[in-house]
Design goal:
With 478 residues, this protein is of the alpha/beta class. It has 13 helices and 20 strands. It has two domains: 36-162 and 438-453, Glutaredoxin (3-Layer(aba) Sandwich); 171-425, Class I glutamine amidotransferase (GATase) domain (Rossmann fold, 3-Layer(aba) Sandwich). Strands 8-7-9-10-19-18-16-13 form an eight-stranded mixed sheet, with helices on both faces. Strands 2-1-3-4 form a four-stranded mixed sheet. The protein has a three-stranded antiparallel sheet with strand order 5-6-20. It is globular and about 100 Å long.
């Protein structure tokens, strides 16, 4: 009995010591530290030394997934012969001198500092974790379960930051056309706003600016990409002339079509080989009968990592590749790729407001029908030639990336849109426009949960041994 009591006291003291020192010894199981192929492509394209400083309290419940991610990045960099990653850990509680230097550089606590060739980027913990509940204080972080912290997106955010450091410019400028009833990127409406996707673009290294074409003879010099999202009114002939000249000089355009609207841009898109049809994609693959689920993708950089994913559209215009797109004399013809299409059971619906939807073989096109397409001219030119190829991406719907559609995270709409923007802006660096790997749900025990578990184990096991001893002694006496 004395030995059992002393064993229980020893276990309790060990638990208290572990709590006070926050000492952790982690054994990796399986492929814990292996990053995705998309991230490995970025590391292979990023040459030179890359230093990552983790400025984080080791007692923070998110320190373990962050440190695991950093180890995975370092292992991947050594295997792909790309970036030479050096990792340093700075605990603000102990390394006061280094913590002061980071504070001088503007690095907040619980953040990562990425440095490459005198350029710096800061990735905060709030950016790496998609919050599901707002935990206001450190005491709440230490007492509540990791399950309530949300989805850990550290790999995607860090991969995007590394890709930005490898670019020749600091941040890419994306101009968002206004003045024709387009959706606004600063609309914070929970259902129909676009603030969530705008926040993702900012995190990926893009600066969003509103642009009005009246009064301009050409687009700004720093325009890496022009977005026309859901225009409900036609563009003036002068505006179309400016847009056409921009594309002819190597411009980049992302066009999100609005339902039952003709803007005049369709004529320019037809010149680049993409036709917008007056039909809406539909099919038996649907969630509630009002939308269509698309899971057939072409072999393209944008859809490279979406082979086992699905896109959800409500009223997406059908697109087609025109047989003979027009091009200036002596120029190579645009190369058109239909990115996403329904399967053979889908069709182009002429009356999307009539339910249930039925296929009319007399006037409606039979599937597969495309809802997204890209056109590129000059993409086969060697990389060492100072030539910027023209790229266009047309998506048959605008609302597929609104806040309400992205809130559930039950589709790949977000990744598809971000991949398209990255490819258009030229952040593919000759390979996939990597924006990171898969999100990982943060699960497991918080510190107090581990204490209760260890204390219970330290108490229950000796108690069971003691009860067995008592029963054996009682039986022997009888």
């Amino acid at each position: 009995m004395l030995a059992i009591a002393l064993g229980g006291v020893l276990c309790l003291l060990a638990v208290v010591l572990a709590y006070r020192t926050a000492w952790v010894w982690e054994v990796n199981v399986g492929q814990v530290t292996q990053v995705s192929e998309r991230t490995r492509d970025i590391l292979a394209d990023t040459q030179g030394a890359l230093r990552i400083t983790c400025f984080m309290d080791r007692r923070h419940p998110m320190f373990r997934p962050v440190s695991r991610l950093l180890r995975g990045l370092r292992q991947a960099s050594r295997s792909v012969a790309g970036a030479d990653i050096v990792i340093a850990y700075v605990d603000p509680r102990w390394d006061l001198a280094r913590a002061g230097q980071l504070a001088t550089l503007g690095v907040p606590e619980n953040a990562l500092l990425l440095e490459r060739q005198r350029r710096r980027l800061i990735v905060t913990l709030d950016e790496m974790v998609a919050q599901r509940s707002l935990l206001r204080s450190r005491e709440e972080l230490n007492t509540r379960s990791h399950r309530e912290l949300g989805v850990f997106r550290g790999e995607s955010v860090c991969a995007a930051a590394i890709a930005r450091l490898a670019l020749p410019f600091e941040r890419a400028t994306v101009y968002w056309l206004q003045g024709h009833g387009e959706v606004r990127f600063d609309d914070y409406d929970d259902l129909h706003g676009f603030s969530d996707i705008a926040r993702e673009l900012n995190r990926s290294g893009f600066d969003l600016k509103a642009l009005a074409l009246p009064g301009l003879s050409r687009l700004p010099e720093d325009c890496q990409l022009l977005v026309i999202a859901g225009a409900r009114y036609a563009l003036a002939p002068e505006e179309l002339t400016v847009l056409d000249a921009y594309l002819q000089s190597g411009g980049r355009l992302l066009y999100l079509a609005a339902a039952n609207v003709t803007t005049g841009v369709e004529r320019i898109l037809a010149e680049w080989g993409i036709g917008v049809l007056p039909f809406f994609a539909t099919g038996p693959q649907t969630l509630s009968g009002h939308e269509v689920v698309v899971s057939c993708f072409a072999d393209h950089v944008i859809t490279r990592e979406l082979k086992n994913a699905s896109l959800v559209f409500n009223d997406a215009h059908c697109l087609r590749a025109l047989a003979e797109p027009s091009a200036p004399a002596g120029a190579d013809q645009p190369k058109v790729t239909l990115l996403a299409s329904t399967d053979a059971s889908g069709w182009g619906e002429s009356k999307p407001d009539v339910f249930p939807r039925r296929f009319d073989p007399q006037i409606e096109p039979l599937g597969p029908v495309a809802v997204a397409a890209v056109s590129e001219r000059g993409g086969n030119v060697a990389k060492d030639v100072a030539f910027r190829p023209t790229r266009l991406c047309v998506i048959g719907e605008t609302d597929f990336v609104m806040n309400g559609m992205l809130a559930s995270r039950a589709n790949a709409n977000r990744d598809f849109f971000l991949n398209a923007v990255a490819w258009l802006a030229g952040i593919d660096m000759g390979s996939a426009p990597s924006l990171g790997g898969d999100a990982t749900l943060v699960t497991g025990f918080a510190r107090r949960d581990w204490i209760m578990f260890m204390a219970g184990a330290a108490g229950v096991v000796p108690l069971c041994v003691f009860l067995a001893f008592c029963l054996a002694s009682l039986r022997a006496r009888r």
